[in-house]
Amino acid sequence: MAANPASEGGFGIYVHWPFCSAKCPYCDFNSHVRHQPVDQARYAVAFERELSHFAELTQGKTVQSVFLGGGTPSLMEPATVERILTAISDRWSLDQHVEISMEANPTSVEANRFKGYRSAGVNRVSLGVQSLHDTDLKLLGRLHDADTARKAIEIARSTFPRLSFDLIYARPDQTLASWEAELKEAISLAADHLSLYQLTIEEGTPFYNLYHAGKLKMPDPELGAQFYELTQKVTDAEGLPAYEVSNHARPGAECRHNLVYWRYGDYVGVGPGAHGRLSVGVNRMATATERHPETWLEAVEQNGHGMIEFAGLSEEEQGDEFLLMGLRLTEGIDLKRFEAFSHRSVDPKRLKDLLDHGMVEELGDNRVRATRDGFFVLDAVVADLAA
């Protein structure tokens, strides 16, 4: 076991571009609509400055992955993306196989920018398709239709070495049969990775208000479980098994950046509302930046960063986070790493109880993972192991 257990999880950089063309009614991410053009050159300088601040805290690290998320990063001009990626490569060493992912919306205008993003260094794109049915795309507040999404997927496949796209299922009035057909079409379009999320109702969103007003009907929990089981059955049969609760890939095509999170590695988070986890000396720090874009921008211009949190994590907090992230993976967790973070062992009686009830299973070499039954009650499984 390495002296710093986080080093085994890798090191990545997350860049948050907070702007969207419209706010989707189900979304609770830190995203903002601006009706005047964003001063991208000014923001690019701010990203460069905040990256410099974090580079000072993480000297000597090698970047395995970069993820441009949002918001809608594909609203950035390719020149803005190139400035940010150049700033990263100027401040850190990059792994020779570095993964540089970018989220994009599949509108025709943004798809035409793909060659510019590829030239800037992006080698993996994640498209926010969400549905291949026009009616559901309207319900979800998306600005594209299904044909535009299919064309964007085709352009992305011809432009980038790696491609993923998102779909949301268990939508209002969706049937299992229609989801199975849609999922099979998605797999035929996909290269090697899909992110498949059950629609959830998040507080503070328009969908939350509609749901609690009785104007949005959601599948009951039993039907939701059937959607999940069907998703696993179809993706397993088609060679894209789940490697994480909501993510599916052909072997070797997993998202390396997200694996840094789930394997509880270190990662820098820059941009409005970004979070990070950093090993600084013997301490593991939680970082967070100002959420409001213009407030973040002014803070960076004044202070060189927009951080509002830089707090040490206790051993208990590290152990809890390690379990919560790692048990999402089908590869499971190494209990020795849990001990290295938390400086305590898992209670053998609690572990045996979870094994006996089929919530977790042993993989050998001191590894355990959640079963599919365990995924449905993952918070409870984590609470039992962490106790």
Q: How would you sum up this structure, described in words?
A:
By secondary structure, this protein is α/β, with parallel strands linked by helices. Helix content is 42%, strand content 24%. It contains 16 helices and 17 strands. The strands form 4 sheets. It has a 9-stranded mixed β-sheet with strand order 9-10-8-7-6-5-4-1-11, sandwiched between helices. Helix 7 (176-189) links the parallel strand 7 and strand 8 (193-198). The longest helix has 18 residues, at 40-57.
Q: How many strand segments? A: 17
Overall average pLDDT: 92
Low-confidence stretches: none
**Biggest β-sheet: count, sense, barrel?**
9 strands, mixed
| Alpha-beta classification | alpha/beta
Helix content: 40-55%
Number of helices: 16
Distance, first to last CA: 23 Å
Helices and strands in order:
Layout: E1 11-17, E2 19-20, E3 32-33, H1 40-57, E4 62-70, H2 78-91, E5 93-104, H3 108-111, H4 114-120, E6 124-130, H5 134-139, H6 146-159, E7 162-169, H7 176-189, E8 193-198, H8 206-212, H9 221-237, E9 242-244, E10 247-249, H10 256-262, E11 266-270, E12 275-280, E13 283-289, H11 293-303, E14 307-312, H12 315-326, E15 333-334, H13 335-342, H14 348-356, E16 360-364, E17 367-370, H15 372-376, H16 378-386
Parallel strand pairs: 1-4, 1-11, 2-3, 4-5, 5-6, 6-7, 7-8
Antiparallel strand pairs: 8-10, 9-10, 12-13, 13-14, 15-17, 16-17
